Amino acid sequence: MSQNAQQAIWLTQDAYDKLKSELDQLSGPGRAEVAAKIAAAREEGDLRENGGYHAAREEQGQQEARIRQLTDMLRRAEIGEPSASADVVAPGVQVTIAFFGDESDTDTFVLGSRELLGLDDAVDSTNVYSPQSPLGAAILGKKKGDSASYEAPNGKAIEVTVIDLQPFQP
């Protein structure tokens, strides 16, 4: 897989629109709101002991980090819809793998991102792995019955076999 394909982020049109809306809110009215909080806190006096000022500056830093993250994600986005069939492991596909060929030791997950698939952590317990993760990168493009291996964080090689593929339906 090419370097660019690994860095691309797969998004549905709906997910793209939600992220774009969040970016527009944060970079427009959100910035103005935080700037107003900082200005109001400055008026209170000594900045060294001004908790409101420091809290507003922290909020501004977090907001700017989120703006950078969203800008990067949208810049690298590839818009598409999940396939109606799942012949190969790709973003938006629900995958079941067996570890070391043992079908009693399996894991089922969706390849993608909770945020990008529009999943809500509070109500949806679907396991999600990134295509950029060691496991995701190892199985990306594999078909049912194909095996792959990846290196775990502890350096151990882990072998997995794709045993089932389903189109993901949130």
How would you summarize the topology of this molecule?
Blueprint: H1 3-7, E1 9-11, H2 13-42, H3 51-75, E2 77-79, E3 93-99, E4 102-111, H4 114-117, E5 128-129, H5 134-139, E6 147-151, E7 157-167
How would you describe this protein?
With 170 residues, the protein is of the alpha/beta class. It has 2 domains: 3-79, Orthogonal Bundle (Helix Hairpins); 93-167, Roll (Chitinase A, domain 3). The chain is built from 5 helices and 7 strands. The protein has helices spanning 3-7, 13-42, 51-75, 114-117, 134-139, and strands spanning 9-11, 77-79, 93-99, 102-111, 128-129, 147-151, 157-167. The strands form 2 sheets. A 5-stranded mixed beta sheet has the order 5-4-3-7-6. The chain has a two-stranded parallel sheet with strand order 1-2. Strand 4, helix 4 and strand 5 (128-129) form a beta-alpha-beta unit. Helix 2 (13-42) packs antiparallel against helix 3 (51-75). The longest helix is centred in the first third of the chain and has 30 residues, at 13-42. It is elongated and about 65 Å long. The model is unreliable at 1-6 (pLDDT under 50).
